[in-house]
Specification:
The protein has 450 residues and is an all-alpha fold. The chain contains 18 helices and no strands. The relative contact order is 0.16.
């Protein structure tokens, strides 16, 4: 399919002209705010469970020898990633065609809420390690399924000219929500010897209560989008419904059609899969590096996490306007370049102590959010009405298909050097590969056909 030519217009105008959606003619602030509160609430799982608190707790000496528990965490997350890769596009496609996008967002979200609450029962003892790992892995699966439906709603609550700002607001709200929640769990339970309600660190109770608070947080802030944004009843909901296994045949035909019509979209899915895995690696191993290489205590890791979320949230919301004005690709390229430079600074200056991680580490966070948000809007501008869940399912699948890259490169560089800080180079390498794959992708593309 050839790319249409546009003369005398900006890249944003070109993309807007190429987009014809069933979305709203005007952006509803109420719907956008309700939608973004899901991101705010999801910080409970991203910040507390998978990044800065619960996984740090699981990989502590209470659960086993150093190196062993980290490897086991990596393996179970890899298994979860494989299941997501196999199931995400079909579950997304079926939520489109059934007209039950919001229903499945609710189901998957509250499964994650229940699994997060169940983490309260993981006591600091090796016999509880696999319970904790299993809850994290299964939580990741359903969190990704919920994210597919949530991302698919983006075109329902935004217009072609506002989609970058709306996406940036969602990501930014997630970071700000992470800040507020981390402040609550840190000053309420983790930092003081005796926290709120008399909670102490004995038997890991401070961490275990923190995940209970996180489950409540996510459950409450997921409600507005479910009560405000109407169920999707557009083009996709009128497509012929097929059995679960027949959905794979339809998916194969749709991928083949995508390859014929817009190979640059396929290349973008590949490139974004690689660099998004690098972005995930920044957060997954950020807390580990802060503690093992730069000597941060558990409390200091959380303080850094709060600062990191402040920086990431502000930059993501601010850059959303540039996304609408300049297009998504320039934003992604600039962000990835900044990430590579900042990562190399962390590596080469690691002997400088905590001040290096505070400065270069926060610089990394400055670029992560804009790259994530712009990647989502790049794809959202191309998807035909009614196939958002399916294509964002492919987005999740391609990301999970290479989700082994950052953990493998991190572990490989550490194993070859014997030094934990060499793992930074592994993450930087993944980001560089993703950037190189992205460069040939066209910044302006025709919208896909249904």
């Amino acid at each position: 399919m050839s790319t249409p030519e546009f003369s005398g217009v900006t890249p944003t105008d070109a993309m807007a002209a190429a987009v014809v959606t069933e979305g709203p003619e005007r952006t509803s602030r109420r719907a956008v705010f309700a939608w973004s509160l899901w991101d705010w609430g999801s910080a409970a799982f991203n910040a507390v469970v998978t990044t800065f608190v619960f996984t740090v707790y699981l990989t502590s000496s209470s659960f086993g020898p150093e190196g062993t528990v980290e490897a086991q965490l990596g393996w179970v997350l890899a298994a979860a990633g494989l299941l997501i890769a196999l199931l995400a596009p079909v579950t997304g496609q079926r939520s489109d065609t059934s007209g039950r996008r919001k229903l499945w967002l609710a189901v998957n979200t509250y499964i994650v809420v229940a699994l997060t609450a169940a983490m309260f029962f993981v006591q600091p003892d090796p016999s509880y390690l696999w319970l904790g790992l299993g809850l994290v892995a299964v939580g990741n699966i359903f969190f990704e399924f919920a994210g597919v439906n949530y991302n698919a709603m983006l075109s329902q609550i935004s217009t072609p000219r506002s989609i970058g700002r709306v996406s940036g607001l969602g990501w930014g709200m997630g970071y700000v929500g992470g800040i507020v929640l981390l402040l609550i769990v840190y000053f309420g339970f983790i930092a003081p010897e005796v926290g709120w309600f008399g909670i102490t660190g004995e038997n890991g109770m401070d961490i275990r209560v923190a995940v209970l608070i996180s489950a409540l947080w996510f459950g409450v802030f997921a409600l507005p989008v479910l009560l405000t944004v109407p169920e999707y009843k557009g083009v996709g909901a009128r497509r012929e419904r097929v059995s679960f296994f027949a959905s794979y045949a339809r998916l194969g035909r749709d991928i083949a059609k995508l390859w014929r019509e817009s190979r640059h979209t396929v290349w973008f899915l590949l490139a974004s899969a690689v660099f998004r895995d690098g972005l995930a690696g920044v957060f997954t191993f950020g807390g580990v590096l802060a503690a093992s290489v730069f000597g941060f205590s558990a409390g200091e890791v959380i303080i850094f996490a709060i600062a990191a979320n402040v920086v990431a949230g502000i930059s993501t919301i601010a850059v959303g306007a540039l996304d609408d004005r300049l297009g998504a690709k320039p934003v992604i390229v600039a962000a990835l370049s900044g990430l590579v430079i900042s990562g190399l600074l962390v590596f080469f200056l690691h002997d400088g102590g905590q001040i290096v991680f505070w400065t270069a580490g926060l610089a990394l966070c400055l670029f992560v959010g804009p790259a994530q948000s712009a990647s989502r809007t790049f794809l959202a501008r191309l998807i035909p009405p009614g196939r958002e869940g399916e294509v964002f399912g492919l987005y999740a699948t391609t990301g999970r298909a290479v989700s082994f890259l950052a953990p493998t490169m991190f572990a490989l560089f550490v194993a070859l050097s014997g030094e934990a800080y060499f793992g930074i180079l592994g993450i930087v390498l993944v980001l560089v590969i993703g950037l190189l794959l992205l460069l040939p992708v066209r910044a302006s593309q025709p919208r896909l056909q249904d």
